[in-house]
Design goal:
Layout (H helix, E strand, L loop, with lengths): L6 H44 L1 H6 L5 H41 L1
Length: about 100
């Protein structure tokens, strides 16, 4: 036997889900910009660390500073990436939940 949820309570849950979806979408967009910037910086520093002859030709670069930047960006990249995955999962599941709820 299924429990019947009152109509007003059901609409409240739907509104909360929509608000969560919209919030996740806006946060996800900001995280995309942040992770793109961090990823670009990490790729440049990674190339400089992998191919040291590039850094030796550029006298203004210090490999220890490049390594420091690369190592300190890594945890930030991981945190932003995990948050981006979570908001992406919410945005992926939301239409499935709505479709399932509308079919019932």
């Amino acid at each position: 036997m299924l429990l019947k949820i009152p109509q007003d309570q059901e609409e409240g849950e739907s509104t909360k889900m929509i608000k969560l979806y919209l919030f996740s979408k806006s946060v996800h967009r900001i995280l995309v910009i942040i992770i793109t910037t961090i990823g670009f910086l990490m790729s440049i520093t990674g190339i400089l660390l992998k191919y040291t002859f590039i850094a030796t030709n550029l006298k203004f670069l210090n490999l220890s500073q490049v390594r420091y930047i690369h190592n300190n960006l890594s945890p930030l990249f991981s945190i932003v990436f995990i948050l981006m995955i979570l908001t992406g999962i919410i945005m992926y599941i939301f239409p499935l939940i709505r479709k399932h709820a509308s079919s019932n």
